[in-house]
Amino acid sequence: MMQQIDLYGVFLPTLLVAALMAYAMFLALRNGLARIGAYRFIWHRPLFDVALYGVLLGLIGYVLKWLLY
Fold first, then answer.
1. Once rounded to an integer, what is the mean pLDDT over residues 36-60?
2. Beta partners for 37?
3. Which of 5, 37, 59, 60 has the most CB within a 10 Å radius?
4. CA distance linking residue 10 with residue 7, whole number of Å
5. Over pLDDT 70: what percentage of the chain?
6. Among candidate residues 1, 52, 61, 6, the one with its CA nearest the CA of residue 25
7. Burial (CB count <10 Å: 0-12, 13-18, 19+), residue 65
8. Is residue 1 scored above 70 in pLDDT?
9. What InterPro entries would the database entry show (predicted)?
């Protein structure tokens, strides 16, 4: 991810955009999981949340790399 994204003349690092997208997806997934009661079956919720965010960030980074190159 060496490219930068141009947003109306402001250059943003690709990792920043990916991190913000992953955070938005993470919040939606976390609320959905809490609503259906999936956190009852998870032993360590903060550790699961960090892992979920890492997986989402990696997935978005992979997709952005595939789209931008």
1. 96
2. none
3. 60
4. 5
5. 97
6. 52
7. middle
8. no
9. DUF1656
Pair of tokens at residue 34: 């809490």
Number of domains in the chain: 1
pLDDT band at 2 (very low <50, low <70, confident <90, very high): low
CA distance 6 to 34: 36
Contact 33, 67 (CB under 8 A): no
pLDDT digits (tens, 9 = 90+) for 52-61: 999 999 999 8
Range of the domain at 16: 4-68
- CA–CA dist 13, 43 (Å, integer): 35
Both tokens of 17, joined, read: 């955009």
